[in-house]
# Entry
Amino acid sequence: MGILIGVGVKLNYKALFPQQLNRQIIAEPKGWRGRKISLQFLRGHHGQLGVSSQKRGKENNIMSIFLTIISGVFVFIIGQTILKLFVEPWQKQRECIAKIAHHLLLYANVYSNPGVGTEKANNEASTETRKLASELIASCYRIPFYKQLAKVKLLPASKKILEVQKNLIGLSN
# Structure
């Protein structure tokens, strides 16, 4: 007994596996040039035989490769967008906060003893403090959705940043 599948392909399922009908085979019919079909022989409720087939060939492989490349490019674009919009500006803000801490420790002798240091040291400390204050406030504007991210405690609160900026400007005067 045989089964006629597609274009002149006839398989004798009893000759293939007489005891076990719940199996899958992959056949490559003559003249199909590299295209294969996957056959699944199943036994139904009343003993009838069912055949499920699927063509497998170069078209499926090319489509699979194409979809893999497209999804890889899509993931790369999403990752770079998140990196450029959120991660890099957040790192710059953290770097700015670290620069402010470094600056305050470096010029602590100038700020703790006003009028004692040289005029050049006082002017240098004042100018650098104003630069860092403006850089700090600018770092908040670089990050999109800053207020929403600050509300969920992912970033420093805007009020605290403004307070620090005002204190740095006051210190530089």
About this structure: DSSP finds six helices and five strands in the chain.
